[in-house]
Amino acid sequence: MGEFELIDRFFLRRGRPASAQVPLGVGDDCALLAPSPGHELAVSCDMLLEGRHFLSTVDPRRLGHKALAVNLSDLAACGARPLAFTLALALPAADEAWLAAFSQGLFALADAHGCELAGGDTTRGPLAICITVFGEVPRGQALLRSGARAGDDVWVSGSLGDARLALEVFRGTLSLPPALFEPARERMERPTPRVALGQALRGIASAAIDVSDGLLGDLGHLLRRSGAGATLEAAAALELLAVRRPAAAAGSLPDPQVQLDCVLAGGDDYELAFTAPPQHRAAVEAAGAASGTPVTRIGRVDAEPGLRLLDAAGQALERPLRSYDHFA
Ligand code: ADP
Ligand code: MG
Fold it and tell me: Residue whose CA is closest, atom 7 of ligand 1?
């Protein structure tokens, strides 16, 4: 199978009518995108390399999903609606079964978000996937990292830390019973980009970022861009770990310090961390409900730079902040 047959078979979706947002897609020298009047284009690019971003044994269907999910997560963090994406693919060989599964996982998520594959590039080489996504956001309304102000609440969507727990099980540093490992593995391999929540937070959140490298690091980026700091409640953060929730989990979890490290610095979560003024609390809850995404308040923004963590008694916790690279 040659390069052009490969593109034709797996990435050219014959019989699909040109959409309003992508009048010209795969097959020409350029794709043409048509964002809605009064909107700005939101553009983001993420690369996934075998061995660095995913394990060589991962199910290709899940890899197709994740490669697009991590990009959609960036659009979500800006409050943008997905329009289209391009796919640059380096493959060691034209493995038909792999390509069929990969493209199925990719297109299932793309179709769920109305995001069209508009073009790409295909070459032989070590397995690498580079996707660029294009979204649209009403002019001037994109959520930015720079808008957090002292007194704002700090919020997080969904759950944090489970993907890292699963990775540590794969690495052999931790063990979990299957009933807890499977959902954690699902979080690692099939992350859910919070696209609807991001759009629902426009005009409500003061700043947002998606959590890809770990909460402390990513929230730290947001706070630096905003010229602010924050105080987080460790107990509230710990509850973000989904594997804690089933009653059966008690007794089979790693110690709470490791759990907290996974929540605060785990990575691969693809949740949104965002800030909003306290008078928007009800609106944030409503945005979460409308988008079917849990939202949890875990702290507040301070004028003083840096991140502080408090225990349940309101005392400063030192160890977790120092140990956030526990697994480095
Ligand atoms: P060019 O040589 O003009 O850059 P190519 O021959 O590389 O174009 O690609 C032919 C067409 O197939 C283009 O429309 C390109 O966007 C598309 N394409 C190539 N690889 C992929 C891919 N992996 N996924 C989607 N579209 C692709
Ligand atoms: Mg060309």
Answer: 121
CATH number at residue 295: 3.90.650.10
Helices 256-265 and 215-226, packing angle to 10 deg: 40
165 plus 268 within the same structural domain? yes
Residue nearest to atom 12 of ligand 1 (CA): 27
> What is the domain extent for residue 75?
3-138
The domain tally of the chain equals 2
Q: What is the mean pLDDT of the chain?
A: 93
Residues 201 and 297 in one domain: yes
Cβ(203) to ligand 1 under 6 A? no
Determine whether the shortest distance from the Cβ of 117 to ligand 1 is under 6 A. Answer: yes
Digit-coded pLDDT (tens) for 206-256: 999 999 999 999 999 999 999 999 999 999 999 999 999 887 777 888 988
Distance (Å) from CA 28 to ligand 2 centroid: 7
Q: Which residue has the tokens 């939202």?
A: 295
pTM summary value: 0.93
What sections of the chain are H helices per DSSP? 3-10, 60-78, 96-112, 162-171, 178-189, 195-200, 215-226, 234-238, 256-265, 281-290, 319-322
Ligand 1 neighbourhood includes 158 CB (under 6 angstroms):
no
Residues 162 and 130 grouped into a single domain: no
Ligand 1 and 30: CB distance under 6 A: no
224 and 296 share one domain? yes
Shortest-distance Cα residue to atom 24 of ligand 1: 120
Q: Are 209 and 221 in contact (CB under 8 A)?
A: yes
In this prediction, residue 323 carries a pLDDT of 41
Residue 29 alpha carbon to ligand 2 centre in Å: 4
Alpha-carbon gap, residue 78 to 302, rounded angstroms:
23
Task: Say if 324 falls within a structural domain.
Answer: no
Q: Does residue 205 share a domain with residue 61? A: no
- What does the pLDDT look like over 266-293, one tens digit per residue? 999 999 999 999 999 999 999 999 999 9
